[in-house]
């Protein structure tokens, strides 16, 4: 949410010549189409689902959010390429978030399509299928970050228990980097934890395409540190995964949100530089004295418009605090900062 790059709201995708969220089935490469599905939120506008045509039917990278509008848009997009839901043989879901996973879960069950997901997201599915949103660690993490009032407001807006049909377990767990033969193609499934622990990207080296999910986005950076099951160093994982993707050939970037972009390497370099800059800003904020993650977040600019922390709504304020916490924990791991647990939360200082 902090990337100062090109505005997603104005981005035109080269495959369509229109705003990247414009409905349709846009040809990305031979046998590959991008179908943007609408999202019921102001920020992201849409999620890109990629359709790979093959001799045995269709493989979809990501599935969209299981809402009426998303299902209708996917049906219309498939119709444009002469296909329907019954032609889908498998879903390769990059990660477990609802705008990627839930429609794949529903359609996979209805039409017998295989559903694949990274095993690192199993703890989240276990928690969601437990049916008790109050067991999520988000409130505890916010309190540890010194954001007690945000934690209280967050708890007051807890949604009802999730629908199990939207969150069924996949047919195939992706456990490590591997090669997949799908739709007449050979894809490298590459584990890229950070945004979530089970995140995967899929590289089609012969076609020079990278199906990047939320790991490499062309105009924003994904949320870091916002998972119902906490991990030790989400930002460290994310930056290591970026470096891992940088070790692949330079591929055409096919993101889940935003326009198609020409170079995965160029965008990875920008994202790594962006987070190094945020790490420096966090250290600068600590220079005046020890602070909680909330205290540091209050001193940082947010979004490409450099909004103040006080101007953020509840949800984005919570994300900002957790992202700041992830940066500060990485500074501790690097030896640049130290942490002390107090009743007010974890307090960080320059080492």
Automatic annotation (TrEMBL):
InterPro entries: Metallo-B-lactamas (IPR001279), RibonucZ/Hydroxyglut_hydro (IPR036866), Sec-metab_biosynth-thioest (IPR050662), WH-like_DNA-bd_sf (IPR036388). Residues 1-20 are annotated as: Disordered. Pfam families: Lactamase_B. It comes from the Bacteria. Residues 46-257 form the Metallo-beta-lactamase domain. Residues 1-10 have a biased composition (Polar residues). Transmembrane segments: none annotated. This is MBL fold metallo-hydrolase.
């Amino acid at each position: 949410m902090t990337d100062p790059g090109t505005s997603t709201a104005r981005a035109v995708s080269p495959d369509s010549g229109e705003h990247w969220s414009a409905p349709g089935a846009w040809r990305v490469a031979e046998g590959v189409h991008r179908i943007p599905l609408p999202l019921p939120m102001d920020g992201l506008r849409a999620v890109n689902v990629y359709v790979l045509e093959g001799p045995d039917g269709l493989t979809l990278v990501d599935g969209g959010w299981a809402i009426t509008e998303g299902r209708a848009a996917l049906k219309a997009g498939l119709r444009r390429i002469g296909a329907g839901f019954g032609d889908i043989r498998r879903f390769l879901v990059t990660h477990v978030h609802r705008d990627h996973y839930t429609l794949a879960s529903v359609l996979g069950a209805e039409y017998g399509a295989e559903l694949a997901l990274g095993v690192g997201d199993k703890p989240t599915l276990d928690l969601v299928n437990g049916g008790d949103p109050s067991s999520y660690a988000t409130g505890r993490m916010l309190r540890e970050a010194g954001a007690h009032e945000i934690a209280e407001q967050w708890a007051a807006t807890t949604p009802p228990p999730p629908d199990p049909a939207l969150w069924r377990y996949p047919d195939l767990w992706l456990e490590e980097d591997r090669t997949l033969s799908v739709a007449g193609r050979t894809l490298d499934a590459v584990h890229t934890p950070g945004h979530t622990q089970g995140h995967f990207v899929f590289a089609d080296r012969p076609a020079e395409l990278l199906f990047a999910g939320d790991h490499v986005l062309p105009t924003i950076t994904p949320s870091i540190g916002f998972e119902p099951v906490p991990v030790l160093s989400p930002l460290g994982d994310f930056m290591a995964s970026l470096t891992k993707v940088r070790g692949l050939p330079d591929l055409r970037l096919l993101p889940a949100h935003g326009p198609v972009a020409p170079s995965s390497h160029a965008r990875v370099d920008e994202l790594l530089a962006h987070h190094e800059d945020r790490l420096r800003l966090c250290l600068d904020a600590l220079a005046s004295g020890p602070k909680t993650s909330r205290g540091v977040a209050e001193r940082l600019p947010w979004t490409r418009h450099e909004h103040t922390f006080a101007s953020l709504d509840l949800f984005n304020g919570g994300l900002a605090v957790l992202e700041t916490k992830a940066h500060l924990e990485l500074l501790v791991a690097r030896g640049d900062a130290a942490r002390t647990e107090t009743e007010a939360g974890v307090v960080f200082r320059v080492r």
